[in-house]
């Protein structure tokens, strides 16, 4: 049996290669994502471990904000002298390092990275742990001199002697580049500017005698943990965070982890789609191969092979296919990881391909995915093959499911579909976001499974409609193509299912994104009353200098500042919620339309008061007039009265969770040194919007990071952000389509082999080669459009349910992008034509007599 299995596998290797491609793609994405993430993790672990001080003393990070505030927490520089007296300390240094800066060249072009990595200004202080070394020029000496890292200098064409402008929190200052520093470790993609330690604190923090952290070197024989304990005992741990080198490295790696997880999960999403669609392809391929080998299997049974041996033979072929596909996929994954590493280098993160990490878990995961998926997909066809009796097989009875009743599928699909539909209905009726999202996920999974199970039941009624015009348009050829698609509903359903999965995802996300865009448009129309909004292009806060420049621009009537602050609120129900609150000037009603359920803007912005979203308040038993303990960064606390409750559904809310907001004087009192995140600007009487925009843009020309936006610009910004998610979905669709095309090609190719004698007879009675090719193309088109119709119908239902979940967050508008839907259906017909090209060409080149004599 083993010998027969191997010969059978080699005899059909050409037919199996298309199935192997699906395995290769899924394994490649799994292996590539693991290799890339392991390589980046290992690289940065080494970087952080080698550059972290033995012990680092930092300001207490008791509250973390999801929204940048621009405030820089500091410690006294004199703390370094106090720490130096601790037994076991070899050396200390007061570090000055900030990321809330912008650096521009003489042409007002940003010198910082465009990939989201920070621009960091720090004091020039070389130690054995420094990630850079001076490679040209000299160290900065006094004010007005700086070093720049070599990667940034090369990309932005900055040379020694050039003058750069640094926009820091205390103010703007110019520096001459007097030297270039080159990374000796991995460049994380940031731009680094180094200043003389004697002036760094004044230029970057606005005051001498301050530092952002204290680096401590341990004396020989003293462990990091021991030294941390001694320093903590000497200076206390209530005001400062103390971290050993290992703890600092882990903290830095954790901050980077979110970025790595995004890349990893996106690639695993591609792997999941490839795997899911590949399952349909493999099931179909093995089902058709078994149908074509009916006589061969029957002979094996007649010669004494029992059912277990036949089943084992088919599953062995599947395992062999999985091993081949997994091996090729693992190799492709290495190539994919190499490409990602090179791509990261192009974006400024200089990883070394020679240091690529392939852990033991990567090949294990690759073979588990490849072999496991193939084995599971081939199990049902293998069981079906084992149930064929020797006599039925010798009579060449087909076992692929032709003519067999679909009652079991109807019952199972109906039950699963009913449960899935109930879950989606529950999602639409739910009043809590968490429960609605859970029901949505359950409903999506169950309705997808039900559609796959019951798909063959829909083949005959739907394809009769889709191909109804074929006989009239193409005559007998059209009629035969329609009947060929109807001949085996199981096969047609399985072939279309691969395309259906991708298009269901696209349909659902298209409805969701269109609804989000429309909802945001409505919210912007309702809430934004300002003529213009001045914001950083990446929503980071900007210096007060920009606020002053905007206020001084001719034609500006009113400027309302927005500033954020991380807070923790102790609520009446006993919960402590950490969130980000917003601060506004008193005239906020003139630039925004805020609907209130209780209180008003004046009450919310008064000293000692705050505003809150009414839904959040109800959930936590907060009432108008309640007094809440509020914690700010640095251990500052205040008792604040709830002066107003807003209707966040229509206003879009302020801040983040809870919609907390208060007067900007409160922010300045408890979070000094913060920066404005937005400026809402109204024009003065007698100034047109176009005039004011032109003047603002001229004023802000030296600040390329800041943009002037009106309502239309704001809407476009939101649409562009939503489009990023949609592009990812389209990329997933592209992958699903590639595999679906392979599935249609495989099905048609095997179908042509299966119908060899039939094709020969049709040719013998006068069917031309062109007519034969057209017949196969039409069959492919109707199968592809059938998959598109099922997928889009399912996706539209999913999209409407997603919108119902979004409605609980205030996004109540429903929009269906009919243009996208129509384009997808037309595209599916094109996919069908492309998939049929090779099988149709092969069929048309058959020798007529040899085809008639084929068995």
From TrEMBL:
Its main location: membrane. InterPro entries: ABC3_permease_C, MacB_PCD, Macrolide_Exporter_MacB. Pfam families: FtsX (PF02687), MacB_PCD (PF12704). Residues 17-232 form the MacB-like periplasmic core domain. It is found in: Cell membrane. The keyword Transmembrane helix applies. Residues 270-390, 732-848 form the ABC3 transporter permease C-terminal domain. The chain crosses the membrane at residues 265-291, 318-344, 364-382, 410-431, 437-459, 493-516, 724-753, 778-798, 818-838. It is a multi-pass membrane protein. Keywords: Cell membrane, Membrane, Transmembrane, Transmembrane helix. It comes from the Bacteria. Belongs to the ABC-4 integral membrane protein family. This is ABC transporter permease. It comes from Streptomyces hyaluromycini.
């Amino acid at each position: 049996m083993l010998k027969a299995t191997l010969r059978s596998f080699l005899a059909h290797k050409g037919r199996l290669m298309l199935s192997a491609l699906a395995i290769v793609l899924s394994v490649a994405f799994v292996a590539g994502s693991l290799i890339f993430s392991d390589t980046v993790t290992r690289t940065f672990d080494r970087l952080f471990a080698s550059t972290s001080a033995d012990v680092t003393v930092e300001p207490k990070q008791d509250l973390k904000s999801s929204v940048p505030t621009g405030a820089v927490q500091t410690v006294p520089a004199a703390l370094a002298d106090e720490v130096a007296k601790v037994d076991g300390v070899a050396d200390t240094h007061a570090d000055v390092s900030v990321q809330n800066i912008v650096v521009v060249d003489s042409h007002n072009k940003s010198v910082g990275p465009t990939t989201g990595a920070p621009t960091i200004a720090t004091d020039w202080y070389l130690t054995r742990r420094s990630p850079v070394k001076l490679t040209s020029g000299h160290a900065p000496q006094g004010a007005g001199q700086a070093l720049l890292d070599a990667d940034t200098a090369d990309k932005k064409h900055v040379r020694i002697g050039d003058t750069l402008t640094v926009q820091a929190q205390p103010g703007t200052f110019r520096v001459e580049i007097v030297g270039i520093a080159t990374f000796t470790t991995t460049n994380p993609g940031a731009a680094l500017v180094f200043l003389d330690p004697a002036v760094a604190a004044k230029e970057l923090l606005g005051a001498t005698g301050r530092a952002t952290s204290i680096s401590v070197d341990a004396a020989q024989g003293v462990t990091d943990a021991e030294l941390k304990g001694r320093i903590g005992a000497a200076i206390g741990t209530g005001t400062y965070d103390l971290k050993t080198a290992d703890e600092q490295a882990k903290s830095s790696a954790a901050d980077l982890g979110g970025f790595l997880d995004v890349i990893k999960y996106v690639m695993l999403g591609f792997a999941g789609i490839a795997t899911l669609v590949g399952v349909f392809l493999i099931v179909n391929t093995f089902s058709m191969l078994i149908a074509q080998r009916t006589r061969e299997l029957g002979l094996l049974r007649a010669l004494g092979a029992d059912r277990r041996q036949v089943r084992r033979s088919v599953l062995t072929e599947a395992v062999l296919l999985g091993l081949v596909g997994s091996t090729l996929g693992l190799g492709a994954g290495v190539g994919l990881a190499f490409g990602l590493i090179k791509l990261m280098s192009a974006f400024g993160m200089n990883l070394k391909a020679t240091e690529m990490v392939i852990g033991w878990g990567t090949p294990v995961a690759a073979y588990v995915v490849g072999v496991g998926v193939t084995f599971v997909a081939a199990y049902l066809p293998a069981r079906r093959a084992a149930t064929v009796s020797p006599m039925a097989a010798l009579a060449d009875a087909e076992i692929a499911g032709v003519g067999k009743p679909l009652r079991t599928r109807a019952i199972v699909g109906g039950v699963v579909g009913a449960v899935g539909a109930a879950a989606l209905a529950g999602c639409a009726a739910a009043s809590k976001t968490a429960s609605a999202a859970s029901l949505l996920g359950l409903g999506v999974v169950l309705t997808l499974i039900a559609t796959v199970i019951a798909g063959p039941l829909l083949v005959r009624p739907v394809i009769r409609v889709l191909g109804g015009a074929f006989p009239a348009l193409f005559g007998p050829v059209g009629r035969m193509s329609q009947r060929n698609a109807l001949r085996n509903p199981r096969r047609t359903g399985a072939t279309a299912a691969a395309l259906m999965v991708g298009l269901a995802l696209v349909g659902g996300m298209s409805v969701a994104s269109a609804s989000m865009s429309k909802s945001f448009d409505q919210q912007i129309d309702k809430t934004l009353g300002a003529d213009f909004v001045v914001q950083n292009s990446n929503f980071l806060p900007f210096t007060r200098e920009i606020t002053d420049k905007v206020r001084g621009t001719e034609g500006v009537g009113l400027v309302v500042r927005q500033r954020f602050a991380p807070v923790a609120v102790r609520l009446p129900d006993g919960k402590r919620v950490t969130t980000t609150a917003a601060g506004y000037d008193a005239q906020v009603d003139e630039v925004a339309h805020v609907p209130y359920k209780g209180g008003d803007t004046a009450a919310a912005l008064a000293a000692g008061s705050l505003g809150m979203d009414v839904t959040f308040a109800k959930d936590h038993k907060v009432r108008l007039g309640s007094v809440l303990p509020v914690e700010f960064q640095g251990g500052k606390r205040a008792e604040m009265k709830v002066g107003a409750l807003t209707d966040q559904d229509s206003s879009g809310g302020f801040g983040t969770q809870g919609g907390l907001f208060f007067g900007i004087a409160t922010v300045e009192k408890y979070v000094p040194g913060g920066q404005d995140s937005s400026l809402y600007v109204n024009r003065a009487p007698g100034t047109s919007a176009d005039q004011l925009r032109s003047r603002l843009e001229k004023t802000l020309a030296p600040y390329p990071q800041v943009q002037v936006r009106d309502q239309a610009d704001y809407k476009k910004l939101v649409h562009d952000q939503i489009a990023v998610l949609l592009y990812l979905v389209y990329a997933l669709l592209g992958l699903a389509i590639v595999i679906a095309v392979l599935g249609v090609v495989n099905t048609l190719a095997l179908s042509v082999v299966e119908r060899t004698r039939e094709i020969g007879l049709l040719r013998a009675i006068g069917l031309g080669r062109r007519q034969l090719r057209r017949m196969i193309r039409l069959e492919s088109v109707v199968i592809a459009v059938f998959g598109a119709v099922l997928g889009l119908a399912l996706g539209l239902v999913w999209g409407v349910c997603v919108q119902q979940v979004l409605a609980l967050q205030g996004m109540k508008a429903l929009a269906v992008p009919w243009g996208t839907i129509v384009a997808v259906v037309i595209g599916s017909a094109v996919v069908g034509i492309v998939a049929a090209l090779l099988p149709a060409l092969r069929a048309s080149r058959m020798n007529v007599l040899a085809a008639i004599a084929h068995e």
